UniProtKB/TrEMBL annotation, chain A:
This is Response regulator. One of its GO terms (biological process) is phosphorelay signal transduction system. It comes from Thalassotalea algicola. SMART domains: REC. It comes from the Bacteria. PANTHER family: PROTEIN-GLUTAMATE METHYLESTERASE_PROTEIN-GLUTAMINE GLUTAMINASE 1, STRESS RESPONSE REGULATOR PROTEIN 1. Residues 4-119 form the Response regulatory domain. Signal peptide: none annotated. InterPro entries: Bact_response_regulator, CheY-like_superfamily, Sig_transdc_resp-reg_receiver.
From TrEMBL, chain B:
The lineage of its organism: Bacteria, Pseudomonadati, Pseudomonadota, Gammaproteobacteria, Alteromonadales. It comes from Thalassotalea algicola. This is Chemotaxis protein. Keywords: Chemotaxis. Gene3D superfamilies: CheC-like. GO terms for biological process: chemotaxis. InterPro entries: CheC-like_sf. It comes from the Bacteria.
TrEMBL record, chain C:
Its cofactor is Mg(2+). Coiled coil: none annotated. Pfam families: GGDEF, PAS_4. PROSITE patterns: GGDEF. One of its GO terms (biological process) is negative regulation of bacterial-type flagellum-dependent cell motility. Residues 178-311 form the GGDEF domain. It is an enzyme of class 2 (transferase). It comes from the Bacteria. GO terms for cellular component: plasma membrane. One of its GO terms (molecular function) is diguanylate cyclase activity. Its EC number is 2.7.7.65. This is diguanylate cyclase. InterPro entries: Diguanylate_Cyclase, GGDEF_dom, Nucleotide_cyclase, PAS, PAS-like_dom_sf, PAS_4, Rev_trsase/Diguanyl_cyclase.
């Protein structure tokens, strides 16, 4: 059975980087979102298991998405992939319920080991 | 010649800048012991005239620090750090100097140099490059000097790639705008670098 | 030449200082420029703390400056425009400059070995000449600017500058809804005075008038020569009552005592118009024309008096 995955990033390149870093053996059904509002639309209308979330985005940023997920009690495992690596920001997203924080630019090794650590795949 | 970046190139440059901004802000936050709020940078193509119009209408009282940068593969340009006047007195605290230890002018130059070089160093690493810098120069707070400098800029080139990055340091509610200008002659070079990165994906 | 080039041969001939420090700020090396200017041999300073060799350096400032190089790995700069010099070094044109020490541009650069930061390289550039010419230029510009705003005869502001200043005060008063008054006065029968005693006498009266009135005013007031024998005073933060007091003192200062010209006592007087900013004044020119009309009425009501158009609508 394939897992449903949502990649939310305003950058096309960054979305591609995440896609390419996903492990080959992992059967996924991927949806893409260009900013927080689009991501919330997807989350509300279909069940998503894993979301990869950028922070610095137009319309609604990643912190806003995490807050909405918490408030609406949406069930999804969120992995933040961001360039904003300040410790204060990392702590903030973890407090808001993100599974892990990964720094940009993302590579396959880190992504895979993080996914495994969290019992996905 | 068309200087415009296509959608992919623009997206790629924006992401490179994002990552550079993130790492630079992290270094800054540690050095200054504060938190830097990140926003999405904007990238436009401007004419010399358009630039002076956009900068001159922002505020009547402001200060600007200019610093040139140049790297391999013909990547070069000028960084302008633009400050609102009311922010100037917060910088000394931010930099960790005692009052009276350095003048407002020195503070502006110091913080500008730090913002510019941390950002561009990270940016350069990402594109496997290395930057050299000219000494930063304060373009007096007097309106006259500012427009003179902008006029001089637009004399040197007709079009430039302009990247706007906003730095907000939360603990000090200090705000400044970094404007990177890459003149037309260097735009082709940066496009070449971007295309090389895009090819990898 | 073989591949191994000894770069110090080149750096020793540079007309700039190169100073290499370790991360604890001890001196590792310097080039001949510094050895010569400090007048010490490298062997004698090697390993010494920089503050022991250059006690003039502001230690805390210097440490904070260098901290950014060490922590961020980025260069930092210090220009003569902000700090004339850091290191007290003699310069080579001791006669034509007014400073004892060499003006400097200093750069602090990260020094890396195998990708690891191991020290700081300080470049010290002699910019005494630049500094010297720049300060001369600044002085000249200042004089030029002054000459541009001053009336040659009376040494008070000329019309152009005075009107600009009025425009600024007008805008400021409107923005902050603060008081603003304007006085304009004109010497009475000035043409007759010129005809009877000559232009030299007329000039003397103008100079004397400017000097007497200047001594009555506050720093914030802007006093200028508007035309031949007409003067204007901008009074920021001043209401009608306050302005009337000033106007009376101006009138009295002019007519109370004569001047002596070629042994003769010559009396003179002025007619004074006054107006205070109100909501009907849309542009500063409106304020001028109301003051001018008041001045005209003061003239036609018999001279040597003050007139206000609004409110009192009478002459005093």
């Amino acid at each position: 059975m394939s897992s449903s995955v949502l990649i939310c990033d305003d950058s096309n390149l960054a979305r591609k980087q995440v896609l390419r870093s996903l492990p080959e053996q992992w059967e996924v059904d991927v949806q893409l979102a260009k900013h927080g509002l689009e991501a919330l639309d997807v989350l509300r209308s279909s069940a998503i298991e894993v979301m990869f979330l950028d922070l610095t985005m137009p319309e609604l940023d990643g912190v806003g998405v995490l807050e909405a997920i918490k408030e609406e009690a949406i069930s999804v495992k969120v992995f933040v992939i961001s360039a904003d690596i300040q410790p204060e920001m990392q702590n903030k997203v973890l407090e808001l319920g993100a599974q892990a924080f990964l720094r940009k630019p993302i590579n396959s090794e880190t992504l895979v080991s993080t996914l495994q650590e969290h019992g996905i795949m | 010649m068309a200087y415009e970046l296509n959608e992919d190139q623009q997206d790629c440059l924006q992401e490179l800048i994002n990552v550079a901004m993130g790492q630079a802000s992290d270094q800054l936050a540690r050095y200054l012991d504060t938190f830097v709020f990140l926003t999405v940078p904007s990238i436009d193509l401007v004419s010399g005239k358009g630039l002076s119009d956009s900068l001159e209408t922002t505020e009547e009282s402001m200060a600007m620090v200019s610093q040139g940068f140049f790297g391999y593969e013909g990547i070069r340009g000028e960084a302008l750090l633009v400050y609102k006047h009311e922010d100037s007195d917060r910088i000394g605290d931010l930099l960790g100097y005692e009052p009276d230890e350095l003048s407002v002018e020195e503070q502006l130059i110091d913080i500008s140099s730090i913002l510019t070089t941390t950002f561009l160093n990270v940016f350069a690493t990402q594109i496997e490059n290395q930057m050299s810098y000219s000494a930063p120069k304060l373009i007096s707070e007097m309106q006259g000097k500012l427009s003179e400098h902008l006029k001089q800029l637009s004399f040197d080139w007709d079009m430039a790639l302009k990247v706007n990055i906003n730095y907000q340091v939360t603990d000090y509610s200090f705000n400044c705008e970094m404007v990177l200008l890459i003149p037309e002659a260097a735009i082709e070079n940066i496009k070449t670098v971007i295309d090389r990165i895009l090819e990898e994906y | 030449m073989n591949g191994e080039i000894e770069l110090s041969q080149v750096t020793d001939q540079l007309n700039s200082g190169i100073l290499l420090l370790d991360l604890q700020l001890n001196i590792v090396s310097w080039n001949r420029f510094l050895a010569v200017h400090v007048n010490q041999k490298l062997e004698d300073v090697k390993g010494k703390l920089i503050f022991d060799v250059f006690p003039e350096l502001p230690q805390r400032w210097f440490e904070r400056k260098v901290a950014s190089v060490i922590q961020l790995g980025t260069p930092t700069y210090c220009s003569w425009e902000q700090r004339h010099h850091l290191f007290e070094l003699p310069h080579t044109r001791p006669i034509t400059t007014d400073s004892h020490f060499m003006a400097q541009n200093c750069s602090f650069l990260p020094y890396e070995q195998e990708g690891k930061l191991v020290g700081i390289c300080v470049l010290i550039e002699d910019v005494t000449d630049v500094c010297h010419y720049q300060s001369q230029l600044k002085e000249t510009m200042k004089q030029l600017e002054l000459a541009n705003r001053i009336d040659g005869l009376t040494r008070i502001y000329n019309r152009k500058y005075w009107e600009e200043a009025l425009g600024k005060e007008f805008a400021r008063a409107q923005r902050y809804t603060s008081e603003l008054s304007l006085i304009m006065f004109d010497l009475d029968h000035f043409k007759k005075l010129n005809d009877n005693y000559g232009h030299q006498c007329g000039d003397l009266v103008l100079i004397e008038t400017a000097s007497r009135v200047s001594s009555l005013l506050r720093d914030a007031d802007v006093f200028g020569r508007y035309g031949g024998e007409e003067f204007g005073i901008v009074l920021p933060q001043t209401d009608q009552i306050g302005a009337l007091e000033v106007a009376e003192r101006v009138r009295a200062a002019i007519s109370n005592s004569p001047i002596i010209f070629e042994g003769k006592k010559i009396s003179f007087s002025a007619s004074v118009g006054l107006a205070t900013l109100n909501s009907e004044h849309k542009r500063y020119e409106d304020l001028i024309s109301e003051t001018d009309s008041a001045l005209y009425r003061a003239k036609s009501s018999g001279r040597d008096q003050i007139c206000i158009l609004q409110k009192f609508n009478k002459c005093s």
